[in-house]
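anyone seen this seq b4? input:
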Amino acid sequence: MLHASRYPKAPEITVTEMPLRMAGVIRESIVDGPQLRFVVFVQGCPHHCPGCHNPESHDPAGGYESTTTRLWNAIKENPLLRGVTFSGGEPFLWGKELAELGRAAREAGLTVMTYTGFTYETLLEKAKTDESVHQLLTVTNYLVDGPFILAERDLNLKFRGSRNQRILDITCYPNSKNAVLMDFDHPTALRG
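predicted toks r here
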């Protein structure tokens, strides 16, 4: 049951039911973005990064089928959540479906973090012709972009696996494409 003071509109928020292939979920995570988050791992990835943390998510026919409605119902069960994270696999293969979940999450006051093997610049180009990419960018607060590069792996980084990956605040999209580079590794740099 939703805590009334945390999600004042959440009981009224609904999502359009759409199927999607899943690699799994983590109902409570503090390592897949800031604060307590519900993590959705989608199935299918074109990047096949060597050393990937989730190689079982690469096969688009693998995993299991779920729906946006089932996922939203699981998300809104927990009043302690502060955000939802989309990972994979490649979330932008499921842009329309995840955008629907992200819209509901944002309406409920949650932040949305999306991991992708694409760079933000590539996604901006894709968004010009692919509405689902545009939709997912629109509901994303934080974007972790770029492929995982094994030679740049760094276990000391927060919320990303290799030094080439950026954490961008893209809350301004689509009104502005000027992302803000976030530095969760040095939180004092964010105060100020």
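The CA atoms of residues 23 and 118 lie 19 Å apart. The radius of gyration is 16 Å. kinda curious what u guys think
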